[in-house]
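User: Second chain of the day. Same drill as before.
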Amino acid sequence: MRVTLLLAAATVLICAAGPAHAERFRVGRLICIGTPRVGLVVGSTQSLRCVFHARHPPGRYVYTGRLRRLGLDLGVTSVSSLSWIVLARNSHIRPSSLRGRYVGASGKLSLGPGLGVNALIGGSRRAIMLQPLSVELSIGVSVAAGVASLTLDARGRR
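Assistant: Same format as last time:
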């Protein structure tokens, strides 16, 4: 539990340290459903199916993804759900705007029901930020802390 709290605090500090003049617009929410995951001591990989709910203009866009964690990762979890607020440099978002690679800090603790935090920046020309503290819900027994990499590929409008 302390590891998760320390990682969450570090994540907030890292994200707050960005340039003050780089105004971000809230453009929607990204919700992903992940496959069961087995931590392999130094990392794990998880396939995701994601839907981006755009605010303006309203729409839903489907993405596939792969979440890789590198660092301490022990345990097994069932299907998980991740949710991020999506911020961008401007308010104009196209159907494939979230496509790309995101990197950042990640932490997770599960003993039965579990919670996780992920802070990721990247996408098209590093113009997209997945809000510093995503909510990750899962069921299982695991602990994970380290660096996360998320790759998203657009699949079209839903």
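Confidence is low (pLDDT under 50) at residues 1-21.

User: Great, on to the next one.
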